[in-house]
Amino acid sequence: MGIVKINDQLHEELRKASGVMVRSINAQAEYWIKIGMLAEANPGMTFSDIMREQMKQADVDVRKVVGE
Questions:
Q1: Which of 11, 27, 38, 45 could cross-link 23 (Cys pair, CB 3.0–4.6 Å)?
Q2: How big is the CA angle at 32 (ends 45 and 41), to the nearest 5 degrees?
């Protein structure tokens, strides 16, 4: 575990987003970092593609969740 310094404005946006997404501030930051890393590693993929692949790798059947 380490400390990451970010500017106050980014921290405020992170705090607000974490409330909307029902995550802790740290969990929201980790999520954004992970998605950003995946996006940089896969520049041809959209956000939806990345999320679909992550759900598939986690063996999540979204159809079961949404009742299709």
A1: 27
A2: 35
Q: What pLDDT tens digit does each residue of the chain (68 aa) get?
A: 788 899 999 999 999 999 999 999 999 999 999 999 999 999 999 999 999 999 999 999 878 877 76
Contact yes or no for 60/52 (Cβ under 8 A): no
Helix, strand, coil content of the chain in percent (nearest 5): 70, 0, 30
Question: CA 47 to CA 63: how far, in whole Å?
Answer: 19
CB within 8 Å of 23: residues ≥ 6 apart: 31
pTM of the model: 0.79
Tokens standing for residue 44 = 């041809």
Tell me whether residue 28 is exposed, middle or buried, using C-beta atoms within 10 angstroms of its C-beta: 0 to 12, 13 to 18, 19 or more.
Answer: buried
